[in-house]
Structures are given as C-alpha cells and as structure tokens.
Amino acid sequence: MTAVAFHEVHVAFAADVISSVMVRVQRRQVAAAAGLSDAGAYARLAELLLHGLAR
After folding, report:
1. How would you classify residue 11: left for phi > 0, otherwise alpha for psi between -120 and 50, otherwise beta?
2. Contacts of 41 (CB under 8 A, 6+ apart)
3. Prediction pTM value
4. Which of 3, 4, 11, 39 sits at a 20 to 30 Å CA gap from 27?
5. Is 9 strand, coil or helix?
6. How does pLDDT run along the chain (55 residues), one tens digit per residue?
7. CA of 28: how far to CAs of 10, 18, 38, 49, in Å?
8. Which of 16, 14, 23 is nearest to 48 (CA)?
9. Is 1 within the bounds of a domain?
10. What are 54's strand-pairing partners?
C-alpha cells in the first residue's frame, strides 16, 4: 500500500470551507448553481478534498 502525502493546510480554514459547501448542498444552492444532485455534489467535494490536497 502506498502512503499519500498531503499539503499542509490551515485546518480551521479548510473546515470552514468544507462546512460551507455542505450547507450550500443542503440548501440546494449547489444544485442550482452547478446542476449537481446532492449526492453528486458530495462526491465532487470528496474528490476535491482527496485529490486536491494530495501532493
């Protein structure tokens, strides 16, 4: 199994961004703005977090 290194990030900022997106998904704002279902939006968020932070 290969270890994955992550970029160092400001944890409080990252948490705020993640929770803000989650609230927007719940309010259907992401669906209106990006045309994604809730499940699709959460999947894209997870993809962004896992692949966008990896080195």
Report:
1. alpha
2. 21, 25, 30, 31, 34
3. 0.77
4. 11
5. coil
6. 677 777 788 899 999 999 999 999 999 999 999 999 999 999 999 999 888 766 5
7. 27, 15, 8, 20
8. 14
9. no
10. 6
Collapsed DSSP state (helix, strand, coil) of residue 46:
helix
Identity of residue 50: L
Sign of CA dihedral 39, 45, 50, 55: positive
Q: How many domains does the chain have?
A: 1
* SS3 state of residue 54: strand
Domain that holds residue 38: 11-52
Domain membership flag for residue 29? yes
Token representation of residue 55:
């080195």
